[in-house]
């Protein structure tokens, strides 16, 4: 392993990107506020400002401020006591750095949750213990809890923890926690999530958030912060084959020695080196990497004033020049010529969609499918199934997807794309769908099947 690879992996390992999900009023903003407060990540003047705010709701007895206001930054959020937009906050401990997204719980803002989750490695799904119906068997969770868990599964987040919040209002009853635990385990089995981690807590009081609570002697697991600090967050993409979508073609005309054509973009997975044989899709032409220029040399090669490097890794923005003069444009994809599992060149794909628009999916409407750096016309061929969030089963009779619904949809594309399955690559196996008439982003899609040409 090279020094650059080690640096890249260590950088990723040191940063945890997580999102809080769950229904409205489950305590997501309060939980993040507690993490910020207990890790001493709040400025003194910010604390003073919040302690004097007129938008007081519920305050922590030791903090003396409304912890939720640390993330509810919009005026409308403070007035209504809800989260509307995704709020990003940053904090650190001696072990890790954290980027946290506080996603809204209201059903109408599900699209904001999808946006935040797509940029995260970890999901913290809050469950309000006081709003779980304990009289049914298994206990009945809120619909939004089920929907958010399903979205987290579809988006392929590698680490998921269920934080059973507000246990203080139920006297930290172990039997209640175990009843809720059974319901959550049943939920995860139905939607396909791995065996979940569950933590009983009170975000308001700080129980099992940063420090262990004396009120839960029956719980021997980690606190939320300890769990977050222990995760392996090195990108799976670093271990997979090269995927480099071309975003821009730069041409510098000069003397014969200075003439340069370079292809700019970000390495979504794998690595690339000078002298490597690559294949350019969808044209399926081979070429040799002649030069690599690093877009940001702040982390390494400081002495290299022209940014030229011998190799580059996942996540790095680069400009690549080729030894051969071949036709390459925006939307092309560089892969290794020796790739044993290359993407499928396909004009027919099936994908799971999270429908985000108010207007339902239409089989007669024209859509644009934006996949990596290419945009292609797409026509809906048919709807295979629609997920019933209440029962977690797929409807026997399909119907056009409505706002916040999830379904499997077949598409026919105007021209082929280099499609990976989402289970193999979250970067090149995902897309967004745009309504050509309104230019609205109407859906987030995960490719599940691609028919070879």
Characterization of this structure:
The protein has helices at residues 3-13, 28-38, 44-51, 75-80, 110-118, 143-154, 174-191, 224-229; strands at 15-21, 87-92, 97-102, 122-128, 159-165, 197-200, 244-245, 248-252, 260-266, 272-273, 277-281, 285-294, 308-309, 311-312, 317-322, 333-336, 344-355, 367-371, 374-388, 393-394, 406-419, 430-435, 441-452. The protein is globular and about 70 Å long. It is α+β, with helices and mostly antiparallel strands. It is 18% helix and 33% strand. Strands 7, 8, 9, 11, 12, 13, 15 and 16 form an eight-stranded antiparallel β-sheet that branches. Strand 18 and strand 19 form a beta hairpin.
């Amino acid at each position: 392993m090279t020094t650059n690879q080690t640096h890249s992996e260590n950088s990723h390992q040191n940063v945890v990107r997580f999102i809080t999900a769950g229904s409205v009023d489950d305590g997501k903003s309060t939980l993040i506020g507690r993490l910020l407060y207990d890790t001493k990540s709040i400025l003194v003047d910010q604390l003073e400002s919040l302690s004097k705010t007129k938008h007081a709701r519920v305050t922590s007895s030791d903090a003396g401020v409304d912890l939720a206001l640390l993330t509810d930054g919009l005026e409308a959020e403070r007035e209504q006591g809800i989260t509307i937009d995704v709020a990003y906050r940053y904090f650190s401990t001696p072990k890790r750095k954290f980027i946290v997204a506080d996603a809204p719980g209201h059903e109408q803002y599900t699209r904001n949750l999808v946006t935040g989750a797509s940029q995260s490695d970890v999901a913290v799904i809050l469950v309000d213990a006081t709003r779980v119906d304990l009289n049914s068997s298994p206990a009945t969770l809120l619909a939004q809890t089920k929907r958010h868990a399903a979205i987290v599964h579809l988006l392929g987040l590698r680490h998921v923890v269920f934080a059973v919040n507000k246990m203080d209002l139920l006297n930290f009853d172990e039997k209640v926690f175990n009843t809720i635990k059974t319901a959550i385990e049943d939920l995860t089995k139905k939607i396909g999530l791995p065996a979940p981690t569950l933590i009983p807590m009170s975000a308001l009081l700080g129980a099992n958030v940063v420090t262990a609570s004396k009120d839960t002697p029956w719980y021997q697991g980690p606190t939320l912060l300890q769990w977050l600090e222990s995760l392996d967050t090195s990108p799976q993409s670093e271990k997979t084959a090269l995927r480099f979508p071309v975003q821009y073609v730069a041409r510098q005309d000069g003397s014969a020695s200075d003439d340069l054509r370079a292809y700019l973009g970000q390495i979504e997975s794998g690595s690339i080196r000078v002298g490597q044989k690559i294949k350019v899709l969808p044209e399926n032409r081979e070429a040799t990497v002649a030069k690599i220029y690093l877009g940001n040399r702040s982390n390494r090669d400081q002495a290299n004033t022209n940014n030229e490097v011998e190799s580059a890794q996942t996540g790095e923005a680069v400009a690549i020049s080729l030894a051969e003069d071949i036709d390459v444009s925006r939307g092309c994809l560089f892969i290794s010529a020796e790739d044993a599992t290359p993407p499928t060149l396909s004009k027919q794909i099936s994908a799971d969609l999270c429908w985000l628009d108010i207007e339902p999916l239409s089989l007669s409407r024209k859509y644009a499918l934006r996949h990596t750096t290419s945009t292609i016309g797409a026509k809906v061929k048919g709807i295979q199934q629609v997920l019933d969030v209440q029962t977690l089963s797929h409807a026997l009779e399909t119907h056009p997807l409505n706002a916040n619904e999830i379904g499997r949809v077949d598409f026919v594309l105007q021209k082929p794309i280099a499609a990976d399955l989402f289970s193999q690559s979250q970067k090149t196996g995902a897309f967004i769908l745009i309504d050509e008439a309104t230019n609205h982003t109407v859906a987030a899609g995960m490719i599940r099947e691609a028919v070879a040409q």
